[in-house]
Amino acid sequence: MTAIAAPAEQALWRDNERCYRAVASRDARFDGQFITAVRTTGIYCRPSCPALTPRQENVRFYPTAAAAQAAGFRACRRCLPDAVPGSPEWNVRADLAARAMRLIADGVVEREGVPGLARRLGYSERQLGRVLTAELGAGPLALARAHRAHSARLLIELSELPLADVAFAAGFASVRQFNDTIREVFARTPSQLRTAAAAARRRAGAAEPEAGTAGTRLSLRLPFRPPFDAAGLLGFFAARAVPGVESVDEHSYARTLRLPHGAATVTLTPQDGHVRCDLRLADVRDLGAAVTRARRLLDLDADPEAVARVLATDPALAPAVAATPGIRVPGAADGFELVLRAMLGQQVSVAAARTAAGRLTAALGEPVPWQPDLLLFPTAETVAERGHEVLRGPKRRTDAILGAAAALASGDVDVHVGRDPAELRAELLALTGIGPWTADYVLMRVLGAPDVLLTGDLVLRKGAAALSIADDIPALTERAQAWRPWRSYAGMYLWRSSQA
């Protein structure tokens, strides 16, 4: 059963009193959920900025950095308001604005322009612009400009790329546009940003960035809202890691990525207050997409306190919530990969599904250029054409997997983060071999849908029984109404309880 609920209450950034209380208390839980702009200084900040709290009559609140920039404010040098977790609202909501934000963060505007963004969302450019301006205070070009500025700052500070190359890698149309935007947003030139970052590294004794013909290496800090159940995520990925594509140890999760402009590898290491993200990119234009996918893999934009407030009201779930604070819903790096792996996992054990995916990848995957023992998961096109050479098992099951691969390869079904959940679910269910469990599992992990409970999952129902929650589907469905809009997270607690 799937339900995606939009927040019933007014958007947080429109509640001046609540936002100002968060700013006055420097509450870091609100970082990324709204932007604080100070009229007298012309600067916008994150809510927890350590600077002197401005007077309430001088403060304006915006939903995004792009809206603050469009209103003429520049970014605070002290708190770096673009270096915060993203708003959890984009995952909770399934409306047009939220879906557009997810695609903009993935770099769709840089690659396909506003027409491509509108086409993926199924709206006209005019209608899309009108909705985004009304909801977010900025149109798609302004939102994409803010995304480009953030990507450019990372490349300026963390790489040795010539600044002209940084401009085009970040998606700017010209060096002049790049220079003007960086000065306007950060009140510094690109050269000044690079000089300041190099001085900060020297003071901290950090290694200098490196680049070479075998890909550009970058190391970033990905923020999250604590608490953060890192051990649970690593355990989930370890049980399902596909040989050659993924590897997990007690400290980190690593995998290959197939990005729009080439291959990449990422290693994610949870640390105190952030996740260290070590990237190697064949093409630096993929930086924004790589970071976005890394964040979605670990569900770093979640608001764990909001989840806990709802789930802890159930007396049966409350002990599990208290024992494992900050549980996350694991995401996915690629829509087709997740669909295929979910189909391979139907009615078999996790270990058997992992073996089948590993065999398919070993035969049809492509080696990463700088490390041939690492493989990119095969594309839908490759599986549709050659999957019959590798897939084993009943012909009906094999034909279903090949049919799904052909549908995704042709574009008849497009699985990406900007899809409307109900429409995508219907398209998946129309494919032979995909039932409600598989469709809902894809929504939960690819779209980050927070309110999906896999009531047909036997392991999840075993966990419900372990917590003395009725495990038959009608009773569990009725009980779960009280867990909305966080039923995906409740499901993770039930899965965890089944292993206790």
UniProtKB/TrEMBL annotation:
Catalyzed reactions: Hydrolysis of alkylated DNA, releasing 3-methyladenine, 3-methylguanine, 7-methylguanine and 7-methyladenine
Xref: Gene3D superfamilies: DNA Methylphosphotriester Repair Domain, DNA-3-methyladenine glycosylase AlkA, N-terminal domain, Helix-hairpin-Helix base-excision DNA repair enzymes (C-terminal), Homeodomain-like, Hypothetical protein, domain 2
The EC number(s) this enzyme carries: 3.2.2.21
InterPro entries: Ada-like_dom_sf, Ada_DNA_repair_Zn-bd, AlkA_N, AlkA_N_sf, Alkylbase_DNA_Glycosylase/TA, DNA_glycosylase, HhH-GPD_domain, HhH_base_excis_C
Domain HTH araC/xylS-type positions: 98-196
Entry keyword Transferase: yes
PROSITE patterns, A to Z: HTH_ARAC_FAMILY_1, HTH_ARAC_FAMILY_2
Keyword Nuclease included in the entry's annotation: no
Enzyme superclass (EC): hydrolase
Top-rank taxon, per record: Bacteria
Keywords: Activator, DNA damage, DNA repair, DNA-binding, Metal-binding, Methyltransferase, Transcription, Transcription regulation, Transferase, Zinc
A Pfam family assignment: Ada_Zn_binding
Listed cofactors: Zn(2+)
UniProt cross-references to SUPFAM superfamilies, sorted A to Z: Ada DNA repair protein, N-terminal domain (N-Ada 10), DNA-glycosylase, Homeodomain-like, TATA-box binding protein-like
SMART domains in UniProt: AlkA_N, ENDO3c, HTH_ARAC
Protein name: DNA-3-methyladenine glycosylase II
Originating organism: Amycolatopsis tucumanensis
